[in-house]
Amino acid sequence: MPTQRDLSDPAPEEVSPELGQQKSYRFPSIRPLLPPVAEWSGFLDRSYAQRWFSNFGPLVRQFEGELTDRFCHAEEAIVSTNSATSGIAAALIALHIQGPVVVPAYTFPATGSAVLMAGAEPVLMDVDLATWSLSPRLLEDFLAKEKCAAVVLVSPFGLRRDFSKHLALCQQHGIPVVIDSAAGLSEKSEPLVAENCFEVYSLHATKPFPVGEGGAIRAHRSQAAALRRALNFGLEAGRTQSGCWGINGKLPEVSAAVGLAVLRTFEAIIRYRRTVAQRYIQLLFEYDGLNFPPEARLSPWQVFPLLLPSALAAEEFIAQAAARSLQVRWSYKPTLNYWPRMSKRAPLPNAESLSQRMVTLPVYSDMSENELSAITAIVRQSLDSALRL
């Protein structure tokens, strides 16, 4: 079982194993920012007036409606949930998925946990070194030979990826698809290709669209009722439905209130986070041997991923940055095959390589110009030291 220091969910403090104390950073890897209470508390008047605080109340429906208007195409809708993990699980439950579900080995553990939550079996597959996402060639080979109930695609770091080949393969085989875009909510994605295709986003406090804890499922409107049943123990209007079951995955009214406030400034937040990413891109283009997203428009940037040429260089870069009070974190380390109840049918060399060399740089919604200048200077100094090895 991985230790806490192996996990890639960033935290502003890190435990020192030598001293058993927390190390604080001037620049933590993540600095969450939610709207002030005064900006969202007024939305709750409706919930208090109706004494309706969960179970798809008035604010949740309003929030879902506004998300749908902003991020969905015709015949699509957003269904909210208490986490992206619950959202992936609900999509699989709504389709009555059982048996093997393909999952890329290079992703956050929640992706595999969601498949287990739905009562299915995560089957790990390697990723492409260039895109960091599921290899379409390997997927094609797998679908031609193996039984598969569904496929979970992952948009690593919220990066926009071209999944057209994957989706065409799955539609050819009649296999449902769930796209895990946990950190990817920013603008409209490509239209969903079929009624058995879903895209799931996280609204966790660490994400660019933060409500504290929450998630959103983009789906065809025909699936909305089934998703709500899957998020509410299989119940609809308090009544059991034949053949249905589910989890407790509902978004509370308080989280919806925060989300409604976030929507008011979200476009400005994304513009600024992309400005921060562009500064990193300009700096990193000065170096050889680095791999990183080349365009700021590709993501809303929860963090900025950077692939170093070797594990040794990555370790040294993290150490050099920490010495200068900048927290750089490993990402998607360890790979999913190190977690319990994950099935591996083939070697995972690319996922393993990425996990040993990928780090992330911080992106804050409220990063000042002075902070950004200081951070980029630390990144430069730390890279100069790490790449000399």
Account of the 3D structure:
With 389 residues, the chain is of the alpha/beta class. It folds into two domains: 37-260, 3-Layer(aba) Sandwich (Aspartate Aminotransferase, domain 2), CATH 3.40.640; 266-386, Aspartate Aminotransferase, domain 1 (Alpha-Beta Complex), CATH 3.90.1150. Helix content is 37%, strand content 16%. It has twelve helices and 15 strands. The strands form four sheets. It has an eight-stranded mixed β-sheet with strand order 3-9-8-7-6-4-5-14, sandwiched between helices. Helix 3 runs parallel beside helix 9, helix 4 runs parallel beside helix 5 and helix 6 runs parallel beside helix 7 (164-172).
Quick tags:
eight-stranded mixed beta sheet, Aspartate Aminotransferase, domain 1, three-stranded antiparallel beta sheet, 15 strands, disordered N terminus, 389 residues, 37% helix, single chain, alpha/beta, Aspartate Aminotransferase, domain 2, 2 domains, 16% strand, globular
